[in-house]
Amino acid sequence: MSRPQRGISRRPAPSAGFPASPAGDALVIDVTSRQRILSIDPAWLARIIRSALAAAGVLRAEIGVRLVDDAGIARLHDRWLGIAGPTDVITFDLADGTDDGLHGDIAVSTETARRVARELGWQPRHELAYYVIHGLLHLIGEDDHTAADRRRMRSRERALMAAAGLPAPPVARRRAAPATGGGR
C-alpha cells in the first residue's frame, strides 16, 4: 500500500523511558523527542494534549509522547504491528483495566508531519498535533475502521483541535480513508 497507515497496538509499548506517574497528579504528560527533523516545544505540545483531554472529558491520564523520524516509527510499526514502513502515528494502549483514566504512549513521525503539511499547505506542528489528537482519540476508545467510524472520529478530531486553539485540518484530509485500516 502506498499510503501511510496508522495503527493502535494493545501490546506493551517499547521501552520509551517515560517516567512513572507522580502520586496525586491527575494528568501526567511526558513529551520526548528522538529526532532532528522538526523543532517542537514539548511544553506547547503538552498544553495541546491537556486541552484536548479536558475537552474530551478525561480527568485522569498518563500519556507519553515520543517524537521520532520516519526510520524510528518504521521500526515501531514493524515490531509492534508487523507492517513494514513508516506511518504517521502509532498509539499504545497501556491501560490495565484496574483503575480509571487513560494510560498510553503515542509515537508520532515528525518527518511524516513535515512532508504531509507541505502537501496540504499548513504548518508541520499543526499536522503533528493532529496526529497526537488522533492517537488520544484511539486511547479514549474511538476507532476508524468503518466509514461511519472515520466520520465520527474526524469530527471529534476537529472539535478537539478547536478546543486546543488549533486550526481545523485542511479540507483535503477529510476524504474517507480505505477500510483497510486508516491512512489518508
Q: How far do the termini sit from each other? A: 11 Å
Number of strands: 5
In terms of DSSP E residues, the strand content is 15-25%
Give the H and E element order: EEHEHEEHHH
CATH superfamily: Metalloproteases ("zincins"), catalytic domain
- Count helical runs: 5
Number of domains: 1
Strand order of the largest sheet: 1-4-5-3-2
Q: Might you state the CATH topology name? A: Collagenase (Catalytic Domain)
Q: Supply the CATH class.
A: Alpha Beta
* Average pLDDT rating: 83
Provide the low-confidence segments as ranges. Answer: 1-23, 174-184
Judged by helices, strands and strand pairing, the structural class is alpha/beta
Using the alpha-carbon principal axes, give the shape: globular
Summarize the SSE layout with pairings.
Layout: E1 7-9, E2 27-33, H1 42-55, E3 61-68, H2 70-81, E4 89-93, E5 102-109, H3 110-120, H4 124-140, H5 147-163
Parallel strand pairs: 1-4, 2-3, 3-5
Antiparallel strand pairs: 4-5
Helix pairs in contact: 1-4, 1-5, 3-4, 4-5
In short:
The chain is an alpha/beta fold. The chain has helices at residues 42-55, 70-81, 110-120, 124-140, 147-163, and strands at residues 7-9, 27-33, 61-68, 89-93, 102-109.
Describe this structure in words.
There is one protein chain. The protein has 184 residues and is α/β, with parallel strands linked by helices. The chain has helices at residues 42-55, 70-81, 110-120, 124-140, 147-163; strands at 7-9, 27-33, 61-68, 89-93, 102-109. Helix 1 (42-55) links the parallel strand 2 (27-33) and strand 3 (61-68). It is globular. The model is unreliable at 1-23 and 174-184 (pLDDT under 50).
